[in-house]
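Chapter summary example: a protein plus adenosine-5'-diphosphate.
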Amino acid sequence: MNNYQKTIGIEVHCELKTKTKMFSDTLNSYEGSENSHINTIDLAYPGTLPLINHGAVQLALKAALLFHCDINKTMSFDRKNYFYPDLPKGYQITQARTPIGINGYVMIEVQGEKKKVRIHDIHIEEDTAKSIHQVDKSYLDFNRSGVPLIEIVTEPDMHTEEEAMAYLHKLRELLVYADISDCKMEEGSMRCDVNVSVSMNEQLGVRTETKNIGSISSVGKAIKAEAKRQIEALENGEKIVEETRRFDEKDEKTILMRVKETGNDYRYFPEPNIPEFTLTEEEIEEVKQSIPKMPDALREEYHELNVNENNIKTLIAHRELCSFFEQVKEYDSVITSNLLTGDVLSYLNKNNLKIKDIKLTKEHMRDIVQKIHDQEISSKQVKKLLPILMEKGGQVAILMNELGMVQISDDHALQQLVDQVIADNPASVEDFKNGKDRAIKYLMGQIMKASRGQANPVSVNRLLLDTLNKGDLN
Ligand code: ADP
Ligand code: MG
């Protein structure tokens, strides 16, 4: 049983984050009640004609570039014919002859090992309506009808469920990061079909396709279950048939849906209502320039900037916070990453806000970092200042003045505090003489308290040690 090798190829559908649909100017939105974002084109009224949404083409192009594809600059569309209530036209507009991208790849990492997953192609198509089946009736919601999709098809390059899951995580990370798709499996904006076969030799086995899998971890479970089923069948002398199956989350089993249609059933032919068009070099270059730095590159760079692992993870998981960090990291990558992933992020979470909703600016970060470097502000004071800056804005120096956040850095004034605290705490002074370092911390704390947090801690530390070491204390 152990001599079987699993082979996996994955087809992912992702809805593109456009304002309007692929071929009509209806809103592309998951919000709102059923059948509220529809028009005659989405409903396929006779005589209506599709009009290409160029924004969708650009997002698809961005994806194709991101997955290192060769670009089919001359674009055409095809009809995939089939009859089902969720498709009132009787065909889906897709790209069969000229997918926007071909021959790409994605790098994945499983247990420290890097591996290339080849992308066969990325093509543009339109989504169908959503069927809602109830006990005695079925309903259709056309809000989804005509939403732009890309389908990303891999070569059969994966051999374990871990590889398949790593691929999907990577794909989602890239598409979300580049603002191409939300990739929410729970909302259906990312859906994957998993092709699985098993074989004992170099030749690939007959594969089945499992659909409707609800999460990336379920993809792992579905592959495991389907490979097990196939191996058991082969061991029993049965043949594997090309068929479409679905995954039952509860029983962790795949279940037969239908025997597979072959390509011919779809009677593909060129879509006559959409004239062929060609992407210009300038347009391709422009889209290339719009691709932000991707997580792998960011991880490496932040590592070199001494940002700690936790902060790196948090920044990468919060795309908008991360782009803000990109603007301020030059001031001090460690301090700014700490502030953003700490106080700033918790403020955003608590108030359910995004970084663009708050008044904190690049200049605020620059001034705070400057004051921290010059020891003109304590970390406690920063904590107090940040929420005000986030809520109301203003200028750091002026605000600090208004809040009475002055640091006492004058040695003469500080020495008085030091002397007073030493006089009040003879036991700690005795401890210090006996070599107990703890005493310093305690005395420091007392001095900071006496100054109401305003003493410059570095100066206090210096003065305190000087005074204690003079040794003429009694
Ligand atoms: P279809 O047009 O029927 O969807 P494709 O040839 O486009 O078929 O392949 C769909 C997916 O199936 C691809 O991701 C491909 O890598 C994968 N695939 C093809 N053959 C196998 C196989 N023997 N085992 C596993 N996956 C396979
Ligand atoms: Mg397919």
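Key point: The mean pLDDT is 93.
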